[in-house]
Amino acid sequence: MLKSLRIKMGQPHSKTHKYTRCGRRINNVKLTGKDGNKVTTVVATPGVGPDRPQEVSYTDTKVIGNGSFGVVYQAKLCDSGDLVAIKKVLQDKRFKNRELQIMRKLEHVNIVKLRFFFYSSGEKKDEVYLNLVLEFVPETVYRVARQYSKHKQTIPILYIKLYMYQLFRSLAYIHSQGVCHRDIKPQNLLLDPESGVLKLCDFGSAKVLVRGEPNVSYICSRYYRAPELIFGATDYTSQIDVWSAGCVLAELLLGQPIFPGDSGVDQLVEIIKVLGTPSREQIREMNPNYQEFKFPQIKAHPWTKVFRPRTPPEAINLVSRLLEYTPGARISPLEACAHNFFDELRDPNCRLPNGRELPPLFNYTPQELAIQPSLNAILVPAHVRQQQQESPAAPAVSPPQQNDTSSTPGAEATPPGAAATGGSA
């Protein structure tokens, strides 16, 4: 009774046991197993689906990342042997955690999966941590690109196509859900180097944008910040993610960031060097309240001279369609997927350089195909449509259900005392 009450109240509930091997408990005490590895058992709630708390045991825990947000651990689930990443963040009791709320409504092949979440106590009194148990993906676009850069090479163009296509597909999906990521950069693009699958991660800055509701302008990492953010806009749209994706594409083609700079002014200068000085109308489109127009008049630099001579013209064209001053002039993520830069991926004979087949790129759900139906004939290649017609009809993938927290003990996604809203930033 006491245990179920603690769960229902949202109190941290975890324990560490001695195991001779994963799955066997002895005496519910904190000891060490024969292999020297500690096993931790927590009561966690599944990330997607019904709120049915369950015991989850994991072992082999080690730190793989940290920052202002908290700490990320790698661990192994005892029941399946699957590797997971556990993101541990300090929870403000006044608010629900926005990252958790957003991740629970997302389910897509190119978005890192939230498997479970649970709360734990901190060292200080009344300190509560939220732990997000995520699928583990071993690499990032950032690390892969850095390896090529160290050897004075650029990523093979097929890989650039593969990675960017999946990024745009993930953006199309989250934007259709009203979610803006607000921190697109190579470090947040996870990669499975064997299969070529890319997954978007880190929704710590993400927000459901509501027209008329102000947002903070100092968002997104330097090098990838859209110009309207640098101009201080607070009514921006999800097109800031499209700009960031354009910066990532340009960086993969160049082998270095296209708009480096240690400050907003520095970044704006770098943007102006390429795009030229924005017109008054373009500045109005980025931020109607911006009055400090004091930039020298500089002409746009030809895109063909920005990139190396052998850069495919369709790649340069796509970059130019993404990196537009006017947010509304940037193409949408799905329009980017349909761009002819990605035509090679739609070739039925296309293979990865290691000889393996491409990962699933065209398994669009009905939900995705409803975003811009006029593009569907391009997005789903003829050979894929033929395969779908010849094979038995697969069940349509329905969107994740809204979580019903009204009747299940332990279902509350908010720590004790948390308010119902997470602020407006």
Automatic annotation (TrEMBL):
The keyword Lipid biosynthesis does not apply. GO terms for cellular component: axon; cytosol; nucleus. Residues 386-425 have a biased composition (Low complexity). Residues 58-342 form the Protein kinase domain. InterPro entries: GSK-3, Kinase-like_dom_sf, Prot_kinase_dom, Protein_kinase_ATP_BS, Ser/Thr_kinase_AS, STKc_GSK3. Residues 384-425 are annotated as: Disordered. Keywords: ATP-binding, Kinase, Nucleotide-binding, Serine/threonine-protein kinase, Transferase. PROSITE patterns: PROTEIN_KINASE_ATP, PROTEIN_KINASE_DOM, PROTEIN_KINASE_ST. ATP binds at K88. One of its GO terms (molecular function) is protein serine/threonine kinase activity. Pfam families: Pkinase (PF00069). The keyword Kinase applies. GO terms for biological process: cell differentiation; negative regulation of canonical Wnt signaling pathway; positive regulation of proteasomal ubiquitin-dependent protein catabolic process; regulation of microtubule cytoskeleton organization; signal transduction. Belongs to the protein kinase superfamily. CMGC Ser/Thr protein kinase family. GSK-3 subfamily. This is Glycogen synthase kinase-3 beta isoform X2. It comes from Lingula anatina. The lineage of its organism: Eukaryota, Metazoa, Spiralia, Lophotrochozoa, Brachiopoda.
